[in-house]
């Protein structure tokens, strides 16, 4: 009798049922809470929106305003002491295994909810049911699981459902997604990583570095070999009239290089800044390889020193201590690399100068291109010509 429920399944049937139910929860988190509510990357039809709200109330007890506010604060304060769940601050073990407690702690911070929780649902059912009775849903779910699957299978499936999001979302994405993995966008000023290129198990959230590069994009994959199952679901919902995509990561568009950068070039460069820096990184690697080959013939010692500093040069971040001293010595003996390093900082500063007018930024971009093409550094000359070919979509 303990195994009696409306459904009498073999053991693997209960496993598949648990995986299917938890996958719906994952899809609800990534589509509704994350991409729709926290980042406004898409709009959902009221039918789809309320299904996701109801399902999350049943399976997680999470409140939309709390989740969106905490996630927005994470982006605003990423990798700082104010970041609610950075493994760079709290340690990977604490975030991975106890991430849910960091979430709950931040949920009690009224300042976070007031500052970052704007625009989330505030209708009658949110005020009277979902928010004040957030944990009632998981009890309703327990009763439903016991009724459908029987006592023992139902209890196990219920435990799996309520533990799934705390581990995979609060632990793995917030922890591993800022600690281990690969990065398509090294220029993103945080530690976010793509865990694997196939975002299936966690709804596409595995592509976390892509997300931090383009936080307002409804699609998290960016390379041809990456797959975002959450985006697939959004496309299906859109085809059914249940979703409207509002924002996607910009796709670089190129035209014939202009004699001089103009306002369209400036706007296109800023809009595609991560692509610009990625292409600059390729140009920089070419300069590095040419200088390494030159120094092998003229100064083997400097060549060996340059080789040891490859990582520091490529990542474009400020060096410190002994590394900074060695780096300065290398750049003193390589005009091409010194020029490439200096101009990389100047290029990145274009979209960081929030107080500069459009006209000032345009003059700076034109001056940058002029100096790059007069530098005599072939990769830099080629890159500047490519830069003048960026166009708006």
Characterise the protein shown here.
- The protein has 393 residues and is mainly alpha-helical.
- The chain is elongated and about 80 Å long.
- A two-stranded antiparallel sheet has the order 1-4. The chain has a two-stranded parallel ribbon with strand order 2-3.
- The chain has helices spanning 11-38, 46-59, 64-76, 87-90, 92-107, 110-116, 124-130, 136-149, 151-175, 208-213, 229-239, 263-271, 273-298, 300-308, 310-315, 321-332, 335-349, 358-373, 378-387; strands at 42-44, 198-199, 227-228, 243-245, 253-254, 390-391.
- It has two domains: 11-245, no CATH class; 263-391, no CATH class.
- The protein is built from 19 helices and six strands.
- The model has no long low-confidence stretch (mean pLDDT 92).
- Helices cover 63% and strands 4% of the residues.
- The longest helix has 28 residues, at 11-38.
What are the key terms here?
19 helices; elongated; 393 residues; two-stranded antiparallel sheet; mainly alpha; two-stranded parallel ribbon
């Amino acid at each position: 009798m303990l195994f009696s429920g409306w459904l009498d399944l073999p053991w693997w049937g209960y496993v598949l049922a648990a995986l299917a139910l938890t996958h719906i929860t994952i899809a609800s988190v990534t589509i509704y809470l994350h991409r729709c509510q926290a980042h406004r990357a898409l709009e959902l039809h009221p039918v789809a929106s309320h299904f996701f709200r109801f399902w999350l109330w049943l399976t997680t007890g999470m409140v939309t305003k709390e989740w969106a506010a905490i996630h927005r604060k994470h982006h605003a304060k990423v990798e700082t002491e104010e970041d609610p769940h950075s493994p760079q601050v709290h340690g990977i073990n604490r975030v991975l295994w106890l991430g849910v407690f960091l979430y709950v702690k931040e949920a009690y911070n009224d300042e976070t909810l007031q500052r970052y929780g704007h625009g989330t649902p505030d209708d009658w059912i949110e005020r009277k049911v979902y928010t004040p009775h957030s944990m009632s849903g998981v009890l309703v779910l327990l009763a439903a699981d016991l009724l459908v699957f029987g006592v023992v299978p139902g209890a196990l499936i219920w435990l799996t459902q309520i533990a799934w999001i705390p581990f995979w979302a609060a632990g793995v994405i917030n922890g591993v997604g800022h600690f281990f993995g690969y990065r398509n966008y090294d220029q993103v000023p945080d530690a976010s990583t793509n865990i694997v290129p196939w975002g299936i198990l966690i709804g596409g959230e595995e592509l976390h570095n892509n997300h931090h590069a383009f936080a307002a994009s409804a699609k998290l994959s960016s390379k041809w070999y990456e797959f975002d199952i959450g985006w697939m679901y959004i496309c299906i919902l859109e085809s059914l009239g249940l979703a409207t995509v509002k924002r996607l990561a910009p796709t670089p568009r190129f035209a014939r290089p202009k004699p001089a950068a103009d306002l369209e070039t400036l706007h296109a460069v800023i809009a595609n800044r991560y692509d610009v820096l990625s292409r600059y990184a390729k140009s920089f690697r070419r300069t590095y390889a040419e200088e390494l080959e030159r120094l092998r013939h003229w100064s083997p010692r400097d060549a060996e020193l340059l080789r040891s500093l490859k990582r520091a040069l490529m990542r474009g971040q400020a060096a410190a201590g002994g590394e900074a001293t060695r780096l300065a010595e290398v750049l003193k003996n390589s005009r091409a690399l010194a020029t490439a390093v200096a101009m990389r900082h100047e290029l990145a500063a274009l979209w960081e100068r929030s107080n500069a007018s459009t006209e000032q930024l345009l003059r700076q971009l034109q001056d940058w291109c002029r100096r790059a093409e007069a530098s005599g550094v072939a990769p830099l000359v080629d890159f500047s010509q490519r830069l003048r070919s960026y166009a708006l979509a």
